[in-house]
């Protein structure tokens, strides 16, 4: 008996026999080399035969041809003995190892096509772990640490914590890649609340720096992250509960009292007063740093940047002041009556007046300001304007909001809905929020002109309004400041009773103007004061929140204990009742 081990001999015999190079199996065409076809036939139809029988079966007269089938083909006979199976298996493996990778894949595909569903499932379970790769561990081994770091840098905090626990190599990549630092930096870049906290708590100095000896290790940022989250939770709880630290600036106006407008930054507050003056206050000490005079009427509106202060007055003029020196750089005389509001940005300024007109100005420099266009259309005083690159939005005592094209100054549409004159608005993206003397606040979609929500709660004219991504803050002639949930207000399913988060009452007169950020509200009033409502720096605020959490957990544990004892007593009571019933009333229908 001669064993056939030479692959080339298989191929030669196959060609001389004139066998076709393709066979149809399970309805599909599988192209195979002659030698592979012989081996497949050998494995599937001649298992257990002697080597000489295998050679004989390779002759043309005894060739077994595979016929088309509609499903997996099972073996026609069982394994005769364990000894023969092991011998045949080793022989097949020897032949398999001699083939190219492509031939091996093709051969395995043909084997799989002849198996049943159960066998396919078993093979799938076997292959799954073999196909999994720990790429985070494998990449550094190939000198590609930066790729592993970049992949993990997209994780959020919860996922990053879980990744650190996978294995020491993952923890090393996260630590050496300073991924907690990068996560905090990403949050500071994208979230104004994070940015504000980094500035106020001075940990921004450890961010956005390359790897040097000056920055702390990754463990510092790992421990810093939960502290930041705790600060954010404290601030949000303070907003919801109305907890704040209140500071008061007494403006001490000489003639008539009232602070009509204001704007602030981290260092100063600039206010426009009814007594015709502009006062600049130190935000830390609350001392008056400078008084600017020049207007002959009340200062009704203002805006400033790093170079200039622009003010509008009831004397019908617009004045431009140098921020640092307080020098008057320019005076614009155009409107016939009081200038009620103004906005400027990116070389464009828009002013509005009691004379019912809107003026659009080009600002080449503080001293070079020219009138571009006058917009006419309102039938009463234009009380407020706002704009971006797409639209100019104006509101008037005629109960309407009008939308104009910023580039062409052409009229676009009118928003109707308020029942009385409109005193204030803010416009950003697609959203316009307006306040009116009908005591309501309305939210509008500027693109379609639809009113999205009406907020009710103020008892008098809504004089000032601002919003950000989370909240709307409004001030009214009733002396109250209300904080509203913006996201809930935009949800038509939210009940009206849940929209007002808090009402703040400290002013003794009408609220004229307010601005706010993530940490504070600054408001001015007819009572001649400026109030700073600080929701961050509250004495004992963090401690109160911690105690609240501990108390809540203690209450929960105590409640759980009471429930457990009550449940035990209840089940004992049921047991006694059931025993009584079983002895005294065996015929009870229950």
UniProtKB/TrEMBL annotation:
Per UniProt, the keywords (alphabetical) are: Repeat, Ubl conjugation pathway, WD repeat, Wnt signaling pathway
> Repeats (WD): which ranges?
252-291, 292-331, 332-371, 375-414, 415-454, 455-487, 504-534
UniProt-listed CDD domains: F-box_FBXW1B, WD40
Q: Which Gene3D superfamilies match?
A: 1.20.1280.50, 6.10.250.1840, YVTN repeat-like/Quinoprotein amine dehydrogenase (2.130.10.10)
| Gene Ontology molecular function | protein dimerization activity
**Record-annotated F-box domain positions:** 145-183
Region annotation (Disordered) maps to 62-84
Q: Which InterPro entries match?
A: Beta-TrCP_D, F-box-like_dom_sf, F-box_dom, WD-F-box_domain-protein, WD40/YVTN_repeat-like_dom_sf, WD40_PAC1, WD40_repeat_CS, WD40_repeat_dom_sf
Q: Name one Pfam family in it.
A: WD40
Q: In its UniProt record, which GO terms are filed under biological process?
A: sprouting angiogenesis; Wnt signaling pathway
How this chain assembles, per its entry, is:
Self-associates. Component of the SCF(FBXW11) complex.
Function noted in UniProt: Substrate recognition component of a SCF (SKP1-CUL1-F-box protein) E3 ubiquitin-protein ligase complex which mediates the ubiquitination and subsequent proteasomal degradation of target proteins. Probably recognizes and binds to phosphorylated target proteins: the interaction with substrates requires the phosphorylation of the two serine residues in the substrates' destruction motif D-S-G-X(2,3,4)-S. SCF(FBXW11) mediates the ubiquitination of phosphorylated CTNNB1 and participates in Wnt signaling regulation.
The protein depicted here goes by the name F-box/WD repeat-containing protein 11
